[in-house]
Structures are given as C-alpha cells and as structure tokens.
Design brief:
alpha/beta, Rossmann fold, two-stranded antiparallel sheet, DNA recombination, 5'-3' DNA helicase activity, DNA_helicase_pif1-like_DEAD
C-alpha cells in the first residue's frame, strides 16, 4: 500500500500538497511531561502559549498531566484501585508493594499519589507488625516513618524494574536518611522480649560456679567499658562454656543491646540463642584459605553493616575450627565499616572453643599445615586476653 502523501501538485510530480502544517513525533509515556504536552497539542485547538494550553474551562492547571485529566484525555485509575483493594485481601504487604511498583513502571496510572494514599496501609502492614514485635506493644499504629520505609522499598523496586525514582511518577520521594525500620538484619537481632530474657538472667546467674562467674564478670566489665577488646575463652567440653556465653548474650539483650552470636559449625550455632554460622553472618569467602588478604563481603551501607556498627559484642563459638584468614578478614572489615583503626574496629570480640579438638580442615594437608592455619598462628593472636574454664560440670553431675 503506498504511503499517504497528500494530493500531487500539477506539473511537479515529486511534490504533494496537504492540509497538515507539520507533524509531532510520538513520545514514550515514560517521558511523562513531554508525553502529556504532545497529548494536549494534538487535542487543544489554537493554544497561545505553554501556559495557555494548561487552561481548561477557565481554570489554569499546574502540570500538563493535570490538564489532560481535566479534559478527560486519560483513563481513570479505577481498575488499579479495584486491583489493589482485592490484593489487600489475600496478599502480603511485600507482594502488594511489588504489584504497585509494576503498575507504576508499566501501566503509568494517572494519579499514582492518590493510589498510594488510598492503599498505603496495606503496603505497610508488615512494617507495622515488625515495629510492634520489636517494641512489644500492640497499640502502635501506622506512622509517617513506617510509610516512608514502605516508599523506600517501592522506589527500590521501581529502580530495579525501570531505573526510575518515585518522583518520575508524580509521587513524593521518600526520605532515606531518617528511619531504619526495614533493616531486616537489625530486626532479626531485636525480635525478643527483654522482660523474658531478664528473667532468664536473674534465674541462672546465681547458678554459675566461681570460675564461670569470674569469666562472666570479666567480659561484662569489658562490655560496660565500651572500649572493645579481644578475648579467648578456653573451655573443654563439659565446663559450661555454652551456659556462660548464653548468659552474656542474654544480659546484653535484656538491656536492649545488640549481641551477635556466631559459630564455625551449624550444629554449634543451634546451641546459641539467635546463633548463626560465621560464614552466613560475616559473608566470608568460600576459598578463604587461599586468600590471605580476604575481606568479608559486607558493604558499608548494608543492613549487616548497621548491625556490626551497633553491636556491643560478637561471640564466635568453636572458633578453633576457623582459618586464621577468617579472623583477619573480619578485622579488616570491621575497621573499614566503623572507620576505626583499633583492633576489630573497636568491637568487643569473644572467641570460644578448645584447641584440643578439631583444627581447621585443610584439604590434602599435613599436620603442620593445620597448625599454620589455626588462629594461634595469626599475628592478631598476640593481642588476645585468655580466660579459662577448667571445672568439668558435666562429670560432677553424674
């Protein structure tokens, strides 16, 4: 089919005439203001200026989009209203936020801010639940800080999907400098009842023997000083090591402090309240034995970095199984995250274990290689303060 070019001009076979003075290029809806300006230009007759084209029935509108809405050139958002209302009945807040982000980036609703205002409670419900759990107060209601956190999550999704901020869709930009309610790592460490933990401490501290109480008091003194420190709790099996470090963790948490509990093995981690493996918490490289200059894969602006900055103590159980490069990587990472050149960035680190048991496993190695890989071979070990448990409580209870 030949292209429509108008009527041919007599005596000029290559020229055509038409009533069109010019043509407007098509505009992608993502270029919002240009798209709405083009929509007005092809529908408004005889506009005198860019200000005049935004005048509808004598009323001047601040944006081209508002003028298009007033002229009825855009569809309303009723279908998105119904969709979000239905999603609120059977979807989680995370799913609704993702759905809303997809609508923003692919469907271009006419009034995105009104959509948010009408459905922000359903998109913030999980944040409210987290805050109630952390504060142990079911009377807490939605707040601007919670809505701000939900907007941050939605904007992150929009950036991932289309590399566009919320302001591009006519919505208010979230404040990323105020709140930390969405820090999942911090929430994980703070989701406990301080009243229950305080009761555990009060009930079990009197049960410690003299040796255990000495270790407990020495480490709690370092916690109170807030100057960091580096301890190794040498404790053979049956001496009550887990009992002591569990009470240290409970004492700090009962006072709303953050205490990290990690272990070199998964089985050992399960014995500690909120314990996790050192590799999962510190993001240690897999082949760390081959990398003497390794660092933990934790970004300075990440959720885990925030936890490490605020924690009062890190307890690393069964540390004797860890490679010395793991300890050195943690030292470099903490110094970088906290901008502190002191040992471990000024963080109090308590290692516990028994070098009489399993040393680091090095594939196809000699006994000398295992000795060289253990923590005692690290230059950091010269800074350690050693505390001991010798009395075997397990034998005495037989």
């Amino acid at each position: 089919m030949p292209r429509k070019q108008g009527s041919p001009v007599d005596a000029c076979p290559n020229l055509f005439k038409s009533n069109a003075l010019g043509r407007l290029f098509t505009v992608n809806p993502r270029h919002t203001e240009c798209f709405y300006l083009r929509l007005l230009l092809v529908n408004v007759t005889g506009p005198l200026s860019f200000q005049d084209i935004r005048k509808v029935n004598g009323q001047h509108y601040p944006t081209y989009k508002d003028a298009c809405l007033a002229l009825g050139l855009l569809e309303d958002d009723n279908q998105w209203e119904c969709m979000l209302a239905e999603a609120a009945l059977n979807c989680t807040a995370i799913q609704i936020r993702l759905l809303f982000a997809i609508v923003l980036t692919t469907c271009f609703p006419a009034r995105a801010q009104i959509l948010w205002d009408n459905h922000k409670d359903s998109m913030t419900d999980d944040i409210l639940h987290q805050h109630r759990t952390r504060c142990h107060d079911l009377t807490i209601t939605f707040s601007d800080a919670m809505y701000n956190e939900a907007l941050i999550a939605i904007e992150d999704l929009c950036i991932v999907i289309a590399n566009l901020p919320l302001s591009h869709f006519g919505m208010n930009s979230p404040n990323r400098t105020e709140s930390d309610l969405m820090n999942t790592e911090m929430n994980r460490e703070l989701q406990y009842s301080t009243v229950e933990i305080a009761a555990i401490v009060a009930r079990n501290v009197p049960l410690m023997n003299e040796e255990q109480r000495t270790v407990y008091d020495r480490i709690m003194l370092a916690v109170s000083a807030g100057q960091g420190g580096f301890f190794f709790l040498d404790a053979p099996g049956g001496t009550g090591k887990t009992f002591v470090i569990s009470l240290i963790l409970a004492e700090i948490r009962s006072n709303n402090g953050t205490a990290l509990a990690v272990a070199s093995s998964d089985i050992a981690a399960t014995l500690l309240d909120r314990g996790r493996t050192a590799h999962s918490v510190f993001k240690l490289p897999l082949n760390i034995q081959n990398n003497p200059d390794a660092v933990c894969n934790i970004k300075k602006q990440s959720s885990m970095a925030t936890v490490l900055k605020q924690c009062k103590i890190i307890i690393w159980d069964e540390c004797t199984m860890a490679h010395k490069h793991s300890l050195e990587a943690l030292n470099r990472t903490l110094k970088d995250i906290k901008n502190n050149d002191n040992l471990f960035g000024g963080t109090l680190l308590v290692l516990s274990g028994d070098f009489r048991q399993t040393l680091p496993v090095i594939p196809r190695s000699t006994y000398a290689d295992e000795i060289n890989a253990c923590l005692k071979s690290s230059p950091l070990w010269r800074n350690v303060e050693k505390v001991q448990l010798k009395v075997n409580m397990r034998v005495q209870m037989l």
